[in-house]
Amino acid sequence: MNTHEPDQDGAAAGPSLAQVLRLAGAGLLDVAAAPRGTGVPVADVVLHDPGDARDGAWTAPGLVLLGVGLDAGSPDAREVLRAADRAGATAVVMRCGTKEVPQALADAARKGRTALLTRAPSASWTQVHARLRTALLQCTPSGSDAGDGLRLGDLPGLANTVADLVGGAVTIEDPQSRVLAYSRVEHEPDPMRRLTILGRQVPRWRVDELRESGFFRALWSTDGVVRRPAEGPYAERLAIAVRHGGEIFGSIWAAADKAPLPEYAEAGLRSAARAAVPHLAHHNAWGRRTARRREEAVRAVLTGGADAEQAARLLDLAQDQPYTVAVVEAHDTRTRDAAAPDAPAASDAAAAALPAAALPAAAEQRVLDVLALQAASYRPGCVTARSGRRLFVLIPGGAGTAAERARRLVATARSVPHTVVFAGVGSVADGPAGLPASRETAALVVRVLRERAEDVPSAPAWAVYDDVAPMAGLLRVLDHVEPLWPELRGPVHAMVAHDRAHGSAYGESAAAYLRAFGDTTAAAARLNIHPNTLRYRLRRARELFGVDLTDPDGRLLADIGLRLARRTA
Predict the structure, then answer these.
(1) What percentage of the chain reaches a pLDDT higher than 70?
(2) What is the mean pLDDT of residues 330-338?
């Protein structure tokens, strides 16, 4: 079959039917007949009303007509195909189900110039329309270089590009005012931008205000830029609808970022709206499915295994480029005492499964939503996956790059009320194969930060692995010792059992003494007791249970046992 035959009807040049079908994806449509091949141009994809065929003035040059409600086996199918052929249509799509295309219909198609396509039984007309339109927009030049070099559907990358183009802070929203992406936060955002980003949508009261003032009416009814002057604490804003013909995909908003928006901002926003069309169309048709596939791929490369290599290819990870994993853990401070987000890993295999040991509370889910958006907007190739209260962020580059990202994520999280966030940066991986190890060390850093915060609430909320390697190593040692500890019997076990049964504080006193390296005064101050009281408790612990902290072996066992007892307290 010829796939490169030039257009012989003089229809407007456009992408070929072959290109559109390829980009729409395999398995969506079957080519039953294509008399001119599939190299013919496509101008648009539209729903076909059979009544149009009875209008003598009806023309359809270059159109792909979707015969919704038209079965290839119906008596009207041949007449619709002939009418479309007379109107100059490129192709007609019909439903055929699981049956073969009737021979009479296939013969009629071969005698004309219009291709006959059949819809896969598993595909809906909504899917067919969306995917064909997205494919058409993808291979149709936008007339703007604002989105050049971006992967199709990379809305965070588009937001950052538009922000550079217009000199302001940018959000990309769907028609319901939900945030799809936003540009990097270089300065403290104004209150409206902060509320919009944290809520992942424009506040409802603001939407009502914009609707009542006629702002949305102006936005959706024009191809131009609509201006919203500065109002008190709210910076000046420019907005433009992203549309293709009569179809609206969303809007782009630019807000002044410290300095007023420059004079060229309007022109930049108009260029951005043209470039955004294929990206938003792709998001509408493929976005959720693509996001799920990418998150599954992130999980695969972080855990290793048979699918990791294929997942790395899907994520476009370079084999010779360094990557670092950051783990971000969110807690609702109102429920944080309920349970730890994860038990210490009993084995490397258990940790590799990225288990969601507890469902995140609403506030935790909210902060993870915000941090996932911000992480994706940071730089190209930065991808995320979630598990329970944790967000896993794969960052191209070394520890320095990832440390800056972790710092910013923690700073952003402070804007969300009733939440606390810990961010750990793992060891640097030389390539995708090293990502499971980077993830494991990042998760250890988070555990270190959480334990430190229990002792000192003002302790830093983020760190890189090298900064906490000794304590991280100790956690791993304790993980391996913990299953063996209950089987042992000794002085520390007796002391801990006595404390739990009688409410005494011998173990707490011994632990403070060990942490103070034998400095009785410092340990007593930590416990808020007199040094003589501490000395008495330590003497009684030796008399009652045989816990001798002057003996090196006894001191080591006491330290291990008391740390493990704290885990199960």
Answers:
(1) 88
(2) 69
> For residue 150, how far is the Cα from the chain centroid?
17
pLDDT tens per residue across span 260-313:
889 899 999 999 998 888 888 878 766 667 777 888 889 999 998 888 888 888
Average pLDDT over the chain reads 83
In the beta sheet, which residues pair with residue 259?
Answer: 257
10 Å CB burial of residue 300 (0-12, 13-18, 19+) is buried
- Measured between alpha carbons, how far is 317 from 323 in angstroms, rounded to an integer? 9
Q: Which residues pair with 325 in a beta bridge?
A: 394
Biggest CA pair distance of the chain? 108
- Answer yes or no: is pLDDT of 338 > 60: no
* Cα three-residue angle 30-33-38, rounded to 5 degrees: 80
pLDDT digits (tens, 9 = 90+) for 23-39: 887 788 989 999 999 99
CA distance 236 to 229: 5
To the nearest 10°, report the CA torsion of 453, 458, 463, 468: -60
19-27: Cβ within 8 A, 24+ apart: 19/135, 19/139, 20/45, 20/64, 20/132, 20/135, 20/136, 20/139, 21/135, 22/135, 23/134, 23/135, 23/138, 23/139, 24/131, 24/132, 24/134, 24/135, 25/131, 27/120, 27/122, 27/123
* N- to C-terminal Cα separation, the chain: 74
Sheet holding 323-332, edge to edge: 383-387, 390-396, 323-332, 419-429, 462-464
Q: What angle do CA 446, 451, 454 make, to 5 degrees?
A: 130
Asked if 28 contacts 133 with a C-beta cutoff of 8 angstroms, the reply is: no
What value, to the nearest 5°, has the Cα angle with vertex 119 and ends 114 and 122?
Answer: 175
Say if CB 302 and CB 325 are below 8 A apart: yes
